[in-house]
């Protein structure tokens, strides 16, 4: 897999395709996505929880080919914008397998979701209930879930920690907001409340927070049953499952999370005497991150204040994660056997900011020089999907590799025409 690139020296192949060959053919920076790996990871989630619904979080990375892969592997799709919905619709993704999220859904998001007939809309604020109900025109009610705030701190970076109180997502169980939302939805015949959702955060490295969330949510199901006499039949625990960015990073397998969640679900349902709801999980990163490799070419090398800076032709515009979350990566020289021993280097981008650092303190051969190709494993999630056009650099392409050494372009590199096309104020 792309996540397990061998030590430097010579070329590296992913799915039988030479990475340096891809750098030659498609230029750099380029994102390579191993189709078989994405599919295998999707299947691993389905196998880990055969009775659950696995919904891929499109925000990690989506393009039309990936919509197809996800559809063919039998997963659903978690989307949070009309744009993601349009990508799914462009490939005829079954709308009933789509879940729409968002703490601030625009009229366009809702219109598109209702027009396509998405399976679930997840309510994240009491103020959106009336507006959504007013838009529903279908013969039947729109199925909705409530995103509850369980009040669980699942670790991970503060900026992507969403299960604890004091941030913008979810309706608090503790403060009664979730229960108020239940009664409001029940008062709207255009909406059918089918279950509860929560998303604890991202890059969560142990199953424990999920087990705690299961207990809280099942307890809340029991409260809803006692108060309103209804048994909600679905529980969606969101995504957030960690991947290894560097060798040795903790990254439990899907089955480890699945077992812990399953055990706690049965135990809690027994204890609170509620029917076992159908489970949904929404992994994004854990399906695509390890299947992606970013390729860069070295543009310059310099020493400054005792440090070695290796500057490449991408940076925070294609991977904002180090700047945003202090994310750490491994970096490998590929394409030639390095002659020199390694030393510690900082791999930086080409953007006009001192904070444009891709990887701090990585071991690279001393003879790294302009023209060399560097590979950054585990780059398949939240890079291209969060890429910007900063400094009018053009966003990189995405190339798929699959068995027998085949590669194909999924998303082409932005070009000057793209840049000028939107600039209409002449
Ligand atoms: N479900 C919901 C409702 C979400 O908000 C998210 C991610 C997921 C599922 C998928 O989480 P995953 O399995 O991919 O961790 N840009 C950040 C990550 C933001 C995650 C936002 N929500 C990063 O690069 O680390």
UniProtKB/TrEMBL annotation:
One of its GO terms (biological process) is lysine biosynthetic process via diaminopimelate. InterPro entries: Ala_racemase/Decarboxylase_C, DAP_deCOOHase_LysA, De-COase2_N, De-COase2_pyr-phos_BS, Orn/DAP/Arg_de-COase, PLP-binding_barrel. The modification N6-(pyridoxal phosphate)lysine is found at residue 59. PANTHER family: DIAMINOPIMELATE DECARBOXYLASE, GROUP IV DECARBOXYLASE. It comes from the Bacteria. Its cofactor is pyridoxal 5'-phosphate. It catalyses: meso-2,6-diaminopimelate + H(+) = L-lysine + CO2. Pyridoxal 5'-phosphate binds at residues 240, 282-285, 382. Homodimer. Substrate binds at residues 285, 321, 325, 353, 382. Keywords: Amino-acid biosynthesis, Decarboxylase, Lyase, Lysine biosynthesis, Pyridoxal phosphate. Belongs to the Orn/Lys/Arg decarboxylase class-II family. LysA subfamily. SUPFAM superfamilies: Alanine racemase C-terminal domain-like, PLP-binding barrel. This is Diaminopimelate decarboxylase. Residues 36-289 form the Orn/DAP/Arg decarboxylase 2 N-terminal domain. Specifically catalyzes the decarboxylation of meso-diaminopimelate (meso-DAP) to L-lysine. The active site is at 352 (proton donor). Pathway: Amino-acid biosynthesis; L-lysine biosynthesis via DAP pathway; L-lysine from DL-2,6-diaminopimelate: step 1/1. HAMAP family: LysA. NCBIfam families: lysA. CDD domains: PLPDE_III_DapDC. Its EC number is 4.1.1.20.
